[in-house]
Amino acid sequence: MAEVLCFGNLQLDILCRTVTDLPPPGGIRMIEAVDFALSGNGGSVAVVLARLGVSVDLAGCSGADVIGDQFRAMLTAEGVGVEKLRRHPAAGTGTSVIALAPNGERSIVFVNGANEAFNLDEVPDGWLHGPRLVAVTSVFVLPQFTGEKVARLFRCAHAGGARTLLNICWDNEGRGLPFLAPALAESDYFVLNHDEGRQLTGHDAPGLILDRLLERTAGAVVLTLGAEGCCFRTESGMERIPAIPVRASDTTGAGDSFVAGFIAGLIRGLPLAESAQFGCKVAAYAVTGPGAYAGIPRHKEEV
């Protein structure tokens, strides 16, 4: 049984570098490079965890195409368990096209593909009895990952002795805190970025975002701040962990890499602050290469 069970999407990322603007209709424009990478919140977190030496299973749905089959082989080669990764008989693999700006920031268009077929209500209870931590990502992107369904999943995970972690995406439909509330009430850790926190709470100041979210969350809230690191509340006030300064070439997957590093710290028995610090370190590796994990050394190397 793996130490971590990660739920979330699996995507093919088509990374276009460098894009400053789009050509006019009917026009063409040459760019520096086009890269392809295994991605998605679930896929990225799982691969980074495996690279950090944490045993992990990925629960989700892959496509009935050559890309989905190749991703299964890649995940297995990285050390990710794929027994809980279902293969949809008809739908294709989720795909994202990512335009990378000169500073590494990105704009994304995507399709969910087979990811939309995975239903949390169909997860066997046995999956949740054994892992030390159950993480749910991709909330607000996958239509069946609702607050109520995540809450039921987390309650079962708690009954099996696992801790729970929630990570979200941008809320395109504005469903907000009422939608998330049941899941937050069962979350031991809630990790999100500043933009997501600002959208959910209407506040810009990190301290106010944390305070608002802590009213709804059972456990700790960790707010990532990009190049400024991350922050969270302690009994003595708000604590900030600085980012490690690096030259970013691609910020795609930086948040997923932080989540994986944070989880790895928890699995290693580190306290909250040290787990967050390790998350920042892993994210710094991630932004130096294409996608979420290419720049991250394997656990046998220095991390």
Helices and strands in order:
Layout: E1 4-7, E2 11-17, E3 33-39, H1 41-51, E4 56-62, H2 66-78, E5 80-81, E6 85-87, E7 94-100, E8 106-111, E9 133-139, H3 147-159, E10 163-168, H4 176-184, E11 189-193, H5 194-201, H6 206-214, E12 220-224, E13 230-234, E14 237-241, H7 254-267, H8 272-286
Parallel strand pairs: 1-4, 1-9, 2-7, 4-5, 4-6, 9-10, 10-11, 11-12
Antiparallel strand pairs: 2-3, 7-8, 12-13, 13-14
Helix pairs in contact: 1-7, 3-4, 5-6, 7-8
Shape: globular
Q: Report the β-strand fraction as a percent range.
A: 25-35%
CATH top level is Alpha Beta
**Low-pLDDT stretches:** none
Query: What is the CATH superfamily classification?
Result: Ribokinase
Distance between the termini: 25 Å
Structural class: alpha/beta
Rg over alpha carbons: 18 Å
Q: How many beta strands in the DSSP annotation?
A: 14
Helix content: 25-40%
Average pLDDT for all residues: 91
Total of helices: 8
Q: Could you describe the largest sheet, including whether it forms a barrel?
A: 10 strands, mixed
Annotated CATH architecture: 3-Layer(aba) Sandwich
Structural domain tally: 1
Short recap of the structure:
By secondary structure, the chain is α/β, with parallel strands linked by helices. The chain is 30% helix and 25% strand. Helix 5 (194-201) packs across helix 6 and helix 7 packs antiparallel against helix 8 (272-286).
